[in-house]
């Protein structure tokens, strides 16, 4: 996870761009793991909080536009093909849906008391 709260488009390639949808998906997975008892909330909550702040910054004030969402693809043949995917900014229904799934999961998994 980057300092700004997002994950990279290819998460283990620091030269790839910081990306909206990967951040939504990874953060949702962390929340799911907390709810399932697979991860300790105290260890994952800081990453989740940073991710949500980054997601909020990437959604336009109109609630419709998204910054730095990777174009959707199926399975690609190699790493370079993934790295060649473009970041888009603007209306992105797929990215918006991922943000809504993450937001809904946050509402169902409030921070622990204390």
Strand content: 5-15%
Distance between the termini: 25 Å
User: What average pLDDT do the residues reach?
Assistant: 91
- From the spread of the alpha carbons, the general shape counts as globular
**Strand segment tally:** 4
Q: How many helices does DSSP assign?
A: 4
**Rounded radius of gyration (Å):** 14 Å
Query: Which regions are unreliable across 5 or more consecutive residues at pLDDT < 50?
Result: none
Helix content percent band: 40-55%
Quaternary organisation: single chain
Name the strands of the widest sheet in spatial order: 1-2
The secondary-structure class comes to alpha+beta
Q: Give a quick account of the main beta sheet: strands, pairing sense, barrel closure.
A: 2 strands, antiparallel
Sketch the topology as an H/E string, one letter per element.
EEHHEHEH
Brief description of this entry?
This protein has 114 residues and is α+β, with helices and mostly antiparallel strands.
SSE layout and pairings?
Layout: E1 7-8, E2 18-19, H1 20-35, H2 41-58, E3 65-70, H3 79-83, E4 87-91, H4 93-108
Antiparallel strand pairs: 1-2, 3-4
Helix pairs in contact: 1-2, 1-4
């Amino acid at each position: 996870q980057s300092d700004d709260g997002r994950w990279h488009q290819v998460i283990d390639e620091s030269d790839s761009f910081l990306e909206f949808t990967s951040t939504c998906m990874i953060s949702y997975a962390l929340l799911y793991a907390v709810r399932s008892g697979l991860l300790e909330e105290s260890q994952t909550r800081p990453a989740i909080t940073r991710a949500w702040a980054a997601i909020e910054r990437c959604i336009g004030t109109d609630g419709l536009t998204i910054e730095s969402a990777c174009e959707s693809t199926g399975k690609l043949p190699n790493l370079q093909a993934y790295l060649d995917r473009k970041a888009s900014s603007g209306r992105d229904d797929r990215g918006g849906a991922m943000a809504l799934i993450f937001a809904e999961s946050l509402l169902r998994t409030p921070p622990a008391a204390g």
